[in-house]
Amino acid sequence: RGKSLKHPGDSNISKFQVSEFILMGFPGIHTWQHWLSLPLALLYLLALTANILILIIINQEATLHQPMYFFLGVLAVVDMGLATTIMPKILAILWFSAKAISLPECFAQMYVIHCFVVMESGIFVCMAIDRYVAICKPLRYPAIVTDSFVVKVTVFMALRNSLATIPVPVLAAQRHYCSQNQIEHCLCSNLGVTSLSCDDRTINSIYQLLLAWTLMGSDLALIFLSYVLILHSVLKLNSAEAASKALSTCTSHLILILFFYTVIVVISITHNAAITLPLVPVLLNVLHNVIPPALNPIVYALKNKELRHGLYKALKLNIKSS
């Protein structure tokens, strides 16, 4: 199924292309992988509910119409987009064994995943810059972080990420898939798909590394620099109370950043050791696309006082109206 048969008289390998890929799910646990559908479905449901709630609260609460919460709103949209790009297909594989995926559909999913992951990284940079200006240059904050600045930086990030990730599916689509079409994964990952090609995929691996180092690497460097400057500024404060207040606004942000980038590093390392234990990178890859969307709004709601008050208000209104 999905394989083009080679006729004895034909010698040109490039004429034969598989018509679809088969996403096999989680390697090594195919017989009982359907049991994973319940926790994954609950995580997806939590991600959607929590992020929609965050967007409603930010929209309704006038005190939350600030740059920091605008970026949080963009992050909520990106998170829902990322989870929705992969979860319906994963659940279809686990519940209905709907493993087939057409080549264009697979390359489209590959593009959207890359786009959303680097967009999340970009939004973390915007949040770090916002916190840096708020803590290190508080008097100049309203003049620097204006509505115009927020819109420009968000549009720049969206354009940067949507354009820089185009070569990933384009290069993958240029490979020849002539025999093997079973992907030991739940989603169309670049390395998982191109490993099935019959021709050289060096360019794909090089671009993937280039993308990771230039975009994610520069983002991480900017975030690290922002927090070093924040810490330096906070340590100079005479009041311990002022210092803890300044840091409390950053802790939720730091928790999420550490989780986001640590998992990316772990996936990269385990991908090389995937021959011995192929389940680990696949499981991590899936969890990395569904845990942050569920975790981000919860961590922010727990750590942020204004957001917490907005949540209580929204819940009370709903209780009263019902």
| Shape annotation | globular
- Structural class comes to mainly alpha
Q: What is the CATH architecture term?
A: Up-down Bundle
Largest sheet: 3 strands, mixed
Strand percentage: under 5%
Cα(first) to Cα(last) distance is 52 Å
**Tally of domains:** 1
Extended strand count: 3
Q: What is the rounded Rg?
A: 22 Å
CATH topology-level fold name: Rhopdopsin 7-helix transmembrane proteins
CATH superfamily: Rhodopsin 7-helix transmembrane proteins
Count of helical segments? 11
Poorly predicted regions are 1-14
> What percent of residues adopt helix (DSSP H or I)?
over 70%
- How do the helices and strands follow one another from N- to C-terminus? EHHEHHHHEHHHHH
Mean pLDDT equals 88
Main β-sheet, spatial strand arrangement: 2-1-3
Membrane topology: Multi-pass membrane protein
Protein name: Putative olfactory receptor 56B2
Subcellular location: Membrane
Keywords: G-protein coupled receptor, Membrane, Olfaction, Receptor, Sensory transduction, Transducer, Transmembrane, Transmembrane helix
Report on this model:
- This protein is mostly helical.
- It has a single domain, classed as Rhopdopsin 7-helix transmembrane proteins.
- It has eleven helices and three strands; from the N terminus they run βααβααααβααααα.
- A three-stranded mixed sheet has the order 2-1-3.
- The longest helix is centred in the middle third of the chain and has 34 residues, at 103-136.
- The model is unreliable at 1-14 (pLDDT under 50).
